[in-house]
Amino acid sequence: MRISAAVSRPGTPAPTIEDVELAEPRAGEMRVRIVAVGVCHTDVHEHPGRLAPHPIVLGHEGAGVVEALGEGVRGFAVGDPVVLSGTSCGECPSCLNNRPTYCDLAMPLTFGGKRLDGSTSLSAKGEPLHSHFFGQSSFASHAIVPERTAIKVPSDVPLELLGPLACGVITGAGSVIEALRVGFGDSIAIFGVGGVGLSAVMAARLVGAERIIAVDREASRLDLARELGATDTLLAGEDVVAQVRAITGRGVRYSLNTTNAPSVHSQALDCLAMNGTAAFVSAPMGQWAPAMFPMLAGGRQLRGILGGDANPRIFLPRLIEYWRQGRFPFERMIQTYRFDEIARAFDDVEHGRTIKPVLLVSEA
């Protein structure tokens, strides 16, 4: 069938909307009409070509409605509202242990631009078009997705809000709740309060952390962080570690770094109390590792996190329920754009003018 998709091609400043051809779903797959899709920094970084092959349709924070089922799909019906998350094989030890973000096949399934058998569901002008980005390629009016990529959601929840839950929001909230298991009375410093960091702030408040210290370069983001639950806010700078220690008296039990700046990775380790844990969701740029080893003295730990350590099928319904209760107001981060405004959304993300853009593709 003919659909509209935003295609990333070499040498272009942003994806451009084209008419392309979408194949029918295969066994174990579904066709989903996309209602809305979030724009993530990963989409912006992948547009010029980093890990995924080009040309490609990106997009991995989709939400929509099931339109067609491939053979063998169970648990879904035509008309079901769904949120799309990353895909996984379902058979490796990580998947079987409810940690699908650490799937053994995560890299080819996420960035390979095709199914594992080498095929793709999209074509343009008779030529194959890379797709299946994070198992969805949802910068499009429709997407072919594996059953494992979709999570059914209540029909009375606004789909236009839900896409970001499946990547940026689950990464931040899951890092606090699932990976670090921050608890009542704990302290945490969160470096970078974009979509991931603000989700971590809300999660830390949700679990009853005593000190939630937000660090960012932008005063407006710090203002929002305080409204969403931060107890303290600090402008990024060389003296951040001293300020964190002055606030807590000893350093924090946990830190979460959402940036890729080596200096911030060092600060996130250096502000820890004895036996504290520093987590990160984005690897530091350049050569940083040798400098951090002395900081691990005193029982401090460093750990990387993918997807918040969370199983989307279990964790996303919890976040939706917290939102219903008014305890997780992630909609405060969202700014909506028409689908044909994707270039503006990309530019706004890259220059920090918006926290979480959501493209409105069709009516729910």
TrEMBL record:
Belongs to the zinc-containing alcohol dehydrogenase family. It comes from Sphingomonas hengshuiensis. Residues 11-359 form the Enoyl reductase (ER) domain. Signal peptide: none annotated. This is Aryl-alcohol dehydrogenase. Keywords: Metal-binding, Oxidoreductase, Zinc. Transmembrane segments: none annotated. Its cofactor is Zn(2+). Pfam families: ADH_N, ADH_zinc_N. It comes from the Bacteria. SMART domains: PKS_ER. GO terms for molecular function: oxidoreductase activity, acting on the CH-OH group of donors, NAD or NADP as acceptor; zinc ion binding.
